[in-house]
Design brief:
By secondary structure, this protein is α/β, with parallel strands linked by helices. It has 14 helices and 15 strands. The protein is 37% helix and 16% strand. It has an 8-stranded mixed β-sheet with strand order 3-2-1-4-5-6-14-15, sandwiched between helices. Strands 9-8-7-10-11-13-12 form a 7-stranded mixed β-sheet, sandwiched between helices.
Length: 371
């Protein structure tokens, strides 16, 4: 199979969908790999590294898209890429379609077979391709939150860990899954007072045991969450409903009652955001103010640390990439139910029930394609 890797073109997206080790393994199995020149530079992976591993380096994205039977990306296609998508090609990447009707429409119109990293799901409910970037985004959220709490960045001027005689920052993390747990860990490590809210008591119990009670855990009732957010210096939204839009858990009315200069970091922005006022921002212009609170809603947070993120992501994706290359999308999904969960579109049909519900589009059960 011919596998293609284009350069990511989303704002300040420096990750790449494969490493030289991945190229080498594909070539060893008899596949051809085409990499766009410069695709790995943002992650400090050079064309010469890919070439030495057996890849063909080409100058333009058009050639990669045109030649690839299996196209690997990191982020969802954006408008300049829509015309390059085509029937007969398999696209394997993060998609987050519930938050993007234009991308969904473009995929359906093109007839592309698309498989979303974020909805590949194992029998125990784990999301193995979302997990590594959730770890990165969670850890980054505490860092960027601390940075934007500085007065020079429009924040309250509060130090996360305080100093002797001065209280530390109050941090509220909404959602105790992979991203939320990592956000809480870093915020706690910086010395902040951290409270994690979740609807799953077993998750709260796990966090309580993991940190010996040092991180406060609370059941996420609307009243308790609102009260905690109003008192917080930093709020990190880490809510996840796989494949679907995130629920809006912090209202504009609540934000109006927060402390001036409080910071809200929305990790869930890829899925539409979990704060009512959230809207996607970029690394170039990451924040905006609502009332007197600072919102950070960058949709590709891990792209800021591409060296770490690229290797973390490809460590998780490569077993699935190899299956897709060896067996084709249909054979790979038939043999691996976890991968089949990632099926999103095929020949104009929408195969994800949550996306279909959120976007009010017709749904086709992917089981009908794998029989």
């Amino acid at each position: 199979m011919r596998v293609g890797i284009p350069t990511e073109i989303k704002n300040n997206e420096y990750r790449v969908a494969i490493t030289p080790a991945g190229v080498s393994e594909l070539v060893r199995r008899g596949h051809d790999v085409v990499v766009q020149a410069g695709a790995g530079e943002g992650s400090a992976i050079h064309d010469a590294d890919f070439k030495a591993a057996g890849a063909q380096i080409v100058n333009g994205a058009d050639q990669v898209w045109a030649e690839a039977e299996l196209l690997l990306k990191v982020k969802e296609p954006i408008e300049p890429e829509y015309s390059r998508m085509r029937k007969g090609q398999t696209l394997f990447t993060y998609l987050h379609l519930a938050a993007s009707r234009p991308c969904t429409d473009a995929l359906l119109k093109s007839g592309t077979t698309s498989i979303a990293y974020e909805t590949v799901q194992t029998a125990d409910g784990a999301l193995p391709l979302l997990a590594p970037m959730s770890e990165v985004a969670g850890r980054l959220s505490a860092q960027v939150g601390a940075y934007h709490l500085m007065r020079t960045q429009g924040g309250r001027g509060v130090l996360m860990g305080g100093v002797p005689g001065v209280a530390p920052a109050k941090v509220v993390v909404i959602g105790g899954g992979m991203a939320g747990d990592n956000a809480a860990a870093v915020a706690w490590g910086m010395g902040a007072h951290v409270t994690v809210f979740d609807l799953n008591v077993n998750i709260l119990r796990k966090i309580d045991a993991e940190y010996g009670g040092a991180i406060e855990t609370r059941y996420s009732s609307r009243l308790d969450l609102e009260d905690a957010v109003k008192q917080a210096d930093l709020v990190i939204g880490a809510v996840l409903v796989p494949g679907a839009k995130a629920p809006k858990l912090v209202t504009n009315e609540t934000v109006a009652q927060m402390k001036p200069g409080a910071v809200l970091v929305d990790i869930a922005i890829d899925q539409g955001g979990c704060f009512e006022d959230s809207r996607p921002t970029t690394h170039d212009d990451p924040t905006f103010k609502v009332h007197e609170a600072v919102f950070y809603c960058v949709a590709n947070m891990p792209g800021a640390v591409p060296r770490t993120s690229t290797y973390a992501l490809t460590n998780a994706t490569m077993p699935y990439v190899l299956k897709l290359a060896d067996k084709g999308w249909q054979g790979a999904c038939f043999s691996d139910p976890a991968l089949a969960k990632g099926l999103s579109t095929h020949q104009g049909e929408l195969l994800n029930a949550e996306v279909a519900h959120d976007l009010d589009l017709p749904y086709t059960d992917p089981a009908s394609l794998l029989a």
